[in-house]
Amino acid sequence: MTNVSIIGLGQTDVREHWDTSIRHLAWYAIEAAMDDAHHHEIDAIYVGNMLAGQLSNQNHLGALVADFAGLRGSEALTVEAADASGGAALRQAVLAVQSGLVETALVVGVEKVTDESGAVIPAALATALDADYEAIHGQTLSGAAALLMRRYMHEYGLELADFAGFSVNAHANGAANPRAMYRNKLRPESFISATMTAAPVSLFDEAPTGDGAAAVIVTASERAADMVARPVRIVASALTTDALALHDRRDTLWLAAAETSARRAYEQAGLTPADIDVAELHDSFTILAALSLEACGFAARGRGWELARDGSIGRGGRVPISTFGGLKARGNPVGATGLYQIVEVAQQVRGTAGDCQVVGARVGLAQNLGGMGATAVTHILTCEE
Question: Ranges for the Thiolase C-terminal domain (predicted)?
């Protein structure tokens, strides 16, 4: 169990922020987190980002964000782990606070994607794959997800309609989230008939990329108890990796990094999957949601899709996921996604999730994946009365 707690939460809407720079996006989330914590003294800043160098022509985000947030002189750096960058940045903050060398850390995930269009964005996202053996041949994240989904369907005798429940659930929950990119509800028949991007992956099967920023402030749990009324304790933090290229994995239908990361988190927290009240999983594609449910111990191998079919993943179900819309409806701001997951789980266990609240949620899990699961970061959060 870690000795680190969250004292402040902040986020922006996920959408096309045409008139907002990457530094402003980061600041809006940081300002909200500072106001939530009533605390402005920061020792270290960890910025989760994947694509700023390619899409915003801006590297060196640590110094940029520190300066613009009025924290010039602070220790600050960027953490990159593809779309697991946000979760990985929080992991670094947890380690820093645990070490005793950093008293209070600010973690912000930020991404500007929609200033570009066309093939530029998929090409940038494809850098999460193996450049020498996958991307060079034209592979994209959608294409890689399609390979996994087609194999999964073949192995377990499934049809496309069997996955509709994931997107239907995400949109139903996103409709209650004022910060979500898409607040429209989705019918199962619309999911099935949607335009294919890489068959069997369709427009309603993969998450839309968007601009956004989310931030948290963390400190030692002993200090946190005296600083805010209801600090959220990070009882587990684990990051693991798998082979980057799908063809190098021993088992393409098993997210080994997600399993190991979740198992280590459960061990740290002294918990089991049955103890989790709410989970935010990386549903950038519905196949990853199904595989993550299995890897995290919520479903047996080959049975993750059943939880979407029978309603178990709904807010009133056995394993509520995508409670604010997930990546599918809230939107996927790539390097910031992991911090959105943390903010959302923290709101759930703190009881401040509003219309998205899971009744009685006290223990929450957030798992952030990079690419097709080559990186997996799992955090477990709790909030005591």
Answer: 241-382
Shared domain for 284 and 323, answered yes or no, is yes
How many structural domains are present in the chain? 2
Distance in angstroms (rounded) separating the CA atoms of residues 330 and 170: 8
First to last CA, the chain: 19
CATH number for the domain that contains residue 367: 3.40.47.10
Range of the domain at 96: 4-116+210-231
Closest by CA to 87, choosing from 383, 382, 324, 381, is 381
- How far apart are the C-alpha atoms of 42 and 59, rounded to whole Å? 22
Q: Do 344 and 320 belong together in one domain?
A: yes
Close Cβ partners of 119 (under 8 Å, ≥ 6 residues apart)? none
Of 168, 199, 210, 191, which is closest to residue 83 (Cα–Cα)?
210
**How many helices and strands (H and E) does the chain possess?**
14, 11
What gap in Å lies between CA 99 and CA 93, rounded to an integer? 10
At 34-50, the pLDDT tens digits run: 999 999 999 999 999 99
Residue 214 corresponds to which amino acid?
Answer: A
Residues 59 and 138 grouped into a single domain: no
Q: Prior bond to 320 cis, omega within 30?
A: no
